[in-house]
């Protein structure tokens, strides 16, 4: 192989790629300005998902589908930043898994704003201090993030997207494993590492903190203390990794939601959307079964059901469901009409691309 020759070819391709990327950005900017003039949002999750789907169908490798997504995510993110400085509020502080999820969804060019609690993410978007918000909703090992569910029941904001993030927990400390007497983290992270902690640090005190990052900051200052957090936090706070991948399940994943003042306008396509809904039922024999039958008789696939106290009256519950399909699908509208005739509360939380 003649290295100079190959490098010349690479240089020529790079020139072509840059020209074509900028052409794409100029066209998308035109669309963005037209949308802005019509009072529409510049960021359209369902259209982006269609673009990603189309790219995977034409990609012949060697790049993976995921790599192509990353590249285009960044191109679109940079275009949006040129047109409108969108602000994204997320559950902070900086370095949390929620920040990683937000960046995975919006790319690195937007304006990220860490806030101290899930309630603050909602209020930032409700007060239009931020354009979008990102919150954790459930973990594949630890289950629901109940604070997020409770907030969704109350808010007028809508879910417009979801992000799945593999979560690999690490034990971070300036002390050796044998010297650690206290482990701090967010309750969810402690739950996800329960068996590992039982086997390796059975006598260490476990302390629940507001965030994984808060636990790391504490561990940097207190010998004998460790934090459970992601590898990114270890780099950011210059604290050694004592152990890596300590979550009890290797396939540990957290699902995050993107929330916005307005719902998505369009559908991604047949079989490509997911809908979230909350409902309540009367205290009657078979009331819950009747609701579930409204879905099953129409072949609507429920992917999740979660119940929470209503917080309005003792022993009354709200049921949160996710199902395949879009709110505007005629079959789904039929099911919703049935729910409306028997449930005291039926509230649409949003329809969004069902992407991983
Ligand atoms: O198709 C649009 O509506 C665009 O604005 C273009 C585009 C893109 O670059 O492909 C840009 C931003 C949106 O979030 C979705 C798609």
Description:
With 356 residues, this protein is an alpha/beta fold. The chain has 4 domains: 1-83, Chorismate mutase (Chorismate Mutase Domain, subunit A, Up-down Bundle), CATH 1.20.59; 85-166, D-Maltodextrin-Binding Protein, domain 2; 170-251, D-Maltodextrin-Binding Protein, domain 2; 263-353, Alpha-Beta Plaits (2-Layer Sandwich). Helices cover 42% and strands 26% of the residues. The chain has helices at 3-37, 45-58, 65-83, 97-106, 118-126, 146-154, 187-192, 194-200, 212-221, 231-236, 287-296, 330-342, and strands at 87-91, 111-115, 132-139, 143-144, 158-166, 170-172, 182-186, 205-209, 225-229, 241-244, 253-260, 273-280, 302-309, 317-324, 345-353. Strands 1, 2, 3, 4, 5 and 11 form a 6-stranded mixed beta sheet that branches. It has a 5-stranded mixed beta sheet with strand order 8-7-9-6-10. Strands 13-14-12-15 form a 4-stranded antiparallel beta sheet, sandwiched between helices. Strand 1 (87-91), helix 4 (97-106) and strand 2 form a beta-alpha-beta unit. Helix 11 packs antiparallel against helix 12. The chain is globular and about 80 Å long. The mean pLDDT is 95. The structure holds prephenic acid (PRE). The site of prephenic acid has 10 residues, from helix 1, helix 2 and helix 3.
